[in-house]
Write a structure and sequence with these properties.
Layout lengths: L10 H30 L8 H15 L3 H9 L16 H8 L11 E9 L2 E8 L2 E11 L5 E3 L9
Antiparallel strand pairs: 1-2, 2-3, 3-4
């Protein structure tokens, strides 16, 4: 077979080869990138989004000054006023001392989540309050009950 006897150009086959080649390269890049993330154990930013959102919503309510609504978010019970005796170990008066203007942080005006990590049956979330990076606050969101609480564990926040 000489060059002049070559088979006719098949456009459909050429398009299939091109498409499969591009798909192969894309899959290879995604696999390499995913493997590097897994090896380096890079945290997924949106992995704990529901818990992060819950804490953001809670702190935004505290910033707005509506401590009754914030207490309902804390306990995951918007109708907590119907049965306040259920929350006696950490009642609204204790909550107001911790989150009101006389708290350790003063009036809370801003917050920023800087880390979140799954631990046990919940997510621990590190928050900077009022831009103060010297003393982060660690909250814990229970995955089953969706309640927020103070975390007994503090995460490493870097040098």
């Amino acid at each position: 077979m000489t060059l002049m006897d070559a088979p006719a150009f098949n456009a459909r086959r050429a398009q299939t080869v091109r498409t499969l080649s591009i798909a192969g390269v894309v899959v290879a890049v995604v696999l390499i990138f995913g493997t590097l993330l897994w090896i380096l154990q890079v945290p997924w930013q949106f992995w704990h989004w529901p818990s992060d959102h819950r804490v953001n919503q809670f702190l935004a309510t505290v910033e707005g000054g509506d401590l009754n609504k914030a207490y309902g978010l804390w306990n995951h019970d918007p109708n907590w006023q119907q049965h306040p005796q259920q929350y006696q170990p950490y009642g609204i008066s204790d909550f107001t001392k911790d989150w009101g203007p006389s708290s350790d942080y003063g009036t809370i005006k801003s917050h920023r989540i800087f880390v979140s990590h799954r631990a046990g049956n919940g997510v621990i979330i590190g928050v900077y309050i009022n831009g103060d990076t010297s003393k982060p606050l660690f909250l814990r969101v229970d995955s089953a009950t969706k309640t927020i609480g103070f975390s007994p564990v503090e995460l490493y926040s870097g040098p």
